Every structure is written in structure tokens, then in C-alpha cells.
Amino acid sequence: MNRPLVGTLATAVLGAATLVTGMAGTAGAAPQVHHQQPQHHKTKAVTFAGTVALSNCSGSVVKMPTSQENDHALVMSNGHCLESGMPGAGEVIVDQPSSRSFTLLDKSAGSLGTIKATKVAYATMTDTDVSLYETSSTYAQIEQKYGIKPLELATEHPAKGAGISVVSGYWKKIYSCNVDGFVPQLKEGDWTWKDSVRYTPECKTIGGTSGSPVIDTTSGKVAAINNTGNEDGEKCTVNNPCEVDENGNVTVHKGINYAQETYGIPKCFGVGNKLDLSAEGCELPKPAATRR
After folding, report:
1. pLDDT value at position 44?
2. pLDDT tens-digit map of 217-270
3. How confident is the model at residue 290 (pLDDT cuts 50, 70, 90)?
4. In angstroms, what CA-CA distances link 124 with 88, 92, 99, 225?
5. How far is 46 from 40, CA to CA, in rounded Å?
6. What is the average per-residue pLDDT within 132-144?
7. Comma-separated ranges of CATH 2.40.10.10 domains in the chain
8. Residue range 62-71: average pLDDT?
9. Chain center to CA of 233
């Protein structure tokens, strides 16, 4: 998984985060954009506006198509980036109190200030790898104070070959490539993710890029969330996910990185940005107590 350390001990996580953050001042000081798409593709300029840096990961302020300006803003990152540790296989977290802080970035990756969570609205590492925090600030308050608008989640399945940019608030770096294809099942350690996005090789994401929004460069909307890559060529181990096709065949692509689709998430949030896992069309995993 693309974060500095995957150990579950809080002290170890904090220690690693401190080490990597210390390096970030030099290694990731300047925004970098690689392999931009030709202009005739009518691509939208992708910047850092709306992205955030976490203690050990990346993230973004996101809105649903139905979100209103006075709704409390949501911040999206990976499930494996939770401050409470990585959820186990099959575990779903809802409405968990949180006071986590996020550093909000401007379009050039400058730090504008911090926004704070009040709770983890939803998080899991089952089928997908996502965390959605509700913050104490509304979208209107964030725009008024910082001049920043949220990124919008797309509601359509990403397309093969689409131009994408992975925007890491942690490293202040943008990785640009294309959607290479889709993986029926991506297995890593105890976890299995469904219908994952495989990047073309240009997106060489690293630890700390976990939770970065994957932005479709045509629509400008969030198509997926960056979460892992095969680092050593091992099969199905932590930091070495393997692909499983419809027939159960397992393949390994060393050095290739992946993201989890987000187009289904808006169907699980209703009026006021409130989570509704029973809403029509919502396919996010439910907590064990509410499964039917």
C-alpha cells in the first residue's frame, strides 16, 4: 500500500510519518507534472487545489453531485490511512469520532491552513480502500476562508485509456498516466478489492501517495482513489498485490500501481452529505450488524 509504513502500531506509524515528512521538504518541495496529455484531448489543467496532506497519506476535499454549499465538507483518503489502524478484512467503520487534522493545499501546493474532522463517516478495506471523514467546516466556509472548492466525485465508471492525474498532497507531486485496464480482484495480504484500476507504468506512485484523488483529465472529476502498487514482485503479499481474473488466474506486475474506483460512492450519501448505506444503488459494504 502506498503509505510510508503499513505497521499497525501507532508509535511505529507516527515515527515513520515523522521521518518521511522530514524528507518531504526537499524531496517533494516543488510540484511536478509528468507526461501531460496533448492539448487536442481538451484536457483540464489539474492542480493541487482541493487536495490535503495527512500525517501519513494524501487526500482531498470531495463533494457528491448532490452536495450543497452549507453541507459539512467531506475529506476522502484510504481506509488503510485511518489513524486508528487498518481495518481488518470484512470490517466496516461508520460514525467513528475523529479529530484528525488535514492540511489544505492551494493550486500550487502551498499550505493554506488546516481543517478538522469530527468523525469518520465511513471507512473500509473490503471491496475497496476508502475513508470518508466529515469535517467541522462547510464547503461555503472553506471557500470563503481559503478560496478553495471541493473536487467532485464522478458517477460513471472510468474508461480504459482515459487520461488521469494522481495528485499527492503529502508529496506535493502530480503523477500523470492513463487507465491501463481493470482488475476483477486485486488481493493484498488479507484484503481483496474489486474492479480496481490499473495504471500505465508512468504513474510511479510511492509511499505517502495513498489516498490521492485520481482525477480524470477530461472531466476534471475524481474517478478513483490511489491505494497500492506491487513493489517487489511478490505474489499477494502486503505491498505486493496480485491480480486475479474471472477464471481465478493470478498474475503479478512488479512496479505497477493501482487505484480503487469511487463512482459508486455518491449513491450512498443522501441529503446533507449523510451516509445512507441502505439507499437504492448503494453497493458499499455494510457493517456486520446491518448486513442482510
Report:
1. 87
2. 999 999 999 999 999 999 999 999 999 999 999 999 999 999 999 999 999 999
3. low
4. 8, 5, 18, 13
5. 16
6. 98
7. 48-153+265-290
8. 98
9. 23
The pTM score is: 0.88
Q: Which residues pair with 229 in a beta bridge?
A: 257
Q: Do the beta carbons of residue 34 and residue 175 sit within 8 Å?
A: yes
- C-alpha distances in Å from residue 205, one per residue of 2, 73, 113, 283, 291: 7, 27, 25, 28, 35
Closest Cα partner for 160 from 176, 185, 177, 181? 181
Distance of alpha carbon 47 from alpha carbon 105, whole angstroms = 10
Residue 168 contacts residue 4 (beta carbons within 8 Å): no
Alpha-carbon gap, residue 33 to 140, rounded angstroms: 29
Distances, alpha carbon 20 to alpha carbons 24, 54, 173, 207, 217, in Å: 6, 12, 14, 9, 29
Write the pLDDT tens digit of every residue in 178-189: 999 999 999 999
CATH of region 163-261: 2.40.10
CATH topology of domain 48-153+265-290: Thrombin, subunit H (2.40.10)
